[in-house]
Design brief:
Layout: H1 2-45, H2 49-73, E1 81-83, E2 89-95, H3 100-115, E3 119-125, H4 131-145, H5 149-159, H6 164-173, H7 178-184, H8 188-204, E4 211-214, E5 217-220, H9 225-237
Parallel strand pairs: 2-3
Antiparallel strand pairs: 1-3, 2-4, 4-5
Helix pairs in contact: 4-5, 4-7, 5-6
C-alpha cells in the first residue's frame, strides 16, 4: 500500500512539474508573440525609426571595420602628409588626383589646416578613376620621398586631370629631382602603399573618393569643411 501511495505521489509531482513546464512555455510563447506585436505596432506608428536603426547598425559595423585597421591606417607613407606632421589630431584623406570632388576639397582641407595648427592630414592615394591617376599617385609618393609632397599635391590638383604633361608640369612646379623621382616610382614600396590603400578602402567600405577617417568617424564624399571641422573638434575633445 505504501509503495502505491509513493508511486501516486511521484506521478502527481511529475504531472505538476509537467504543468509548470507547459505553463512556462506557454507564457514565454505568449510574451514573445506579444513583444513581436508591440515591436511591429511601434514600427508601423513610427516608420522614421527604421532609417535611424539602419544608421546605428551601419555605425556599429563601421566601428568594427575601423578597429581592425586602426593600428596602421593613421600612420602615413613617409612624407605623405599635409599640415602639421607632428599634429595631435589626425585626419586621413583617401584621394585620387583625377577626382573632381577631391579637387574641390583641397580648399576645405587647406582652411582646416590653417585654423587647426595641431592637425595632421594623412593622405592615402586611392587611384581608381584612370591609369593616369595611378601614375600621378606614384609621383605623389616620389614627391613625399623628396620632402616635397605638399607642393606636388597642390600643383597636381591645380594642373587639371592627370596625364603625362600635367604630371611632369606638377613635378617641375614642386621642384622635384625628376630623375630621382622616375627611379623611385618603380620602388616596391610605392606599389605596396597603393595596394594597401585600396585594401583599407575595401575594409572600410569606401568605394569612391574623397573619403575621410578621423578618430572613430568615417565619411564618404566631399562632405565640406563644416562637418570635418566638427569631427576635428570632437576628436580634440575626446
Amino acid at each position: 500500500m505504501t509503495d502505491r501511495k509513493t508511486a501516486n505521489s511521484l506521478l502527481l509531482s511529475l504531472a505538476g512539474l509537467a504543468l509548470l513546464i507547459v505553463g512556462a512555455a506557454g507564457g514565454w510563447w505568449y510574451e514573445s508573440r506579444r513583444t513581436k506585436e508591440v515591436v511591429k505596432q511601434t514600427i508601423l506608428e513610427n516608420p522614421e525609426i527604421l532609417p535611424q536603426a539602419m544608421q546605428e547598425l551601419q555605425r556599429r559595423e563601421s566601428a568594427k571595420s575601423l578597429a581592425s585597421v586602426s593600428e596602421t591606417i593613421f600612420a602615413p607613407f613617409p612624407g605623405s602628409v599635409l599640415g602639421n606632421p607632428q599634429g595631435k589630431v589626425t585626419l586621413v584623406e583617401f584621394t585620387d588626383f583625377a577626382c573632381t570632388y577631391c579637387r574641390s576639397s583641397v580648399a576645405d582641407v587647406e582652411a582646416l589646416i590653417k585654423t587647426n595648427p595641431d592637425l595632421k592630414v594623412v593622405v592615402r592615394h586611392m587611384p581608381i578613376l584612370s591609369p593616369q591617376s595611378g601614375v600621378a599617385a606614384q609621383w605623389g609618393l616620389a614627391a613625399a620621398e623628396q620632402g616635397r609632397y605638399a607642393a606636388f599635391h597642390h600643383a597636381m590638383f591645380a594642373a587639371g586631370r592627370p596625364d603625362a604633361t600635367t604630371i611632369e608640369a606638377a613635378a617641375r612646379v614642386a621642384g622635384l629631382d625628376l630623375a630621382r623621382a622616375q627611379k623611385f616610382v618603380a620602388d616596391a614600396s610605392v606599389a605596396k602603399e597603393l595596394e594597401g590603400n585600396l585594401n583599407y578602402a575595401r575594409t572600410l567600405g569606401f568605394d569612391g573618393t574623397p573619403a575621410w577617417v578621423i578618430g572613430g568617424q568615417m565619411f564618404s564624399g566631399a562632405v565640406g569643411r563644416d562637418l570635418l571641422a566638427k569631427a576635428i573638434a570632437e576628436e580634440r575633445g575626446a
